[in-house]
Specification:
Elements lengths: L9 H10 L7 H11 L13 H10 L4 H17 L1 H4 L7 H8 L3 E3 L11 E3 L9
Antiparallel strand pairs: 1-2
Subcellular location: Endomembrane system
Membrane topology: Peripheral membrane protein
Pfam family, one: CRAL_TRIO_N
């Protein structure tokens, strides 16, 4: 087990190994492979490239290096294109908390074609006056 897996239960570690193809012996190599792809996109400002952050994207794409990098690039590209939206975005913001309480975001019961959960935004549930 690596420091990136510290705190995970044995059940979670086994689930990561079976479902995500996470291998503690190659974890740092997997992260480095994604990190090495960053130079292929000089047009994007990758603000975070630490191991823990890249690991999130590897897990989200079941350790498919190319797909994890593609998601990472799309994440930073979207943030760059929408600076105003993310300028003061904080989970502690009362407006954000109220939107979550109102049920604004939700998760569909069906999975996408890759077996991932689908987050949806139910705009009808959102009381903008709050």
């Amino acid at each position: 087990m690596t420091h990136l897996q510290a705190g995970l239960s044995p059940e979670t570690l086994e689930k990561a190994k079976v479902e995500l193809k996470e291998n503690p012996e190659t974890l740092h190599q997997d992260i480095q492979e994604v990190r090495d792809m960053i130079i292929t996109r000089p047009d994007i400002g990758f603000l975070r490239t630490d191991d823990a952050f890249i690991l999130r994207f590897l897990r989200a794409r079941k350790f498919n290096h190319f797909e994890a990098f593609r998601l990472l690039a799309q994440y930073f590209e979207y943030r760059q294109q929408n600076l105003d939206m993310f300028k003061n975005l904080k989970a502690t913001d009362p407006g954000i908390k109220q939107a979550l309480k109102d049920g604004f975001p939700g998760v569909l019961s069906n999975l996408d074609r890759y077996g991932r959960k689908i987050l949806v935004l139910f705009a009808a549930n959102w009381d903008q006056s709050r």
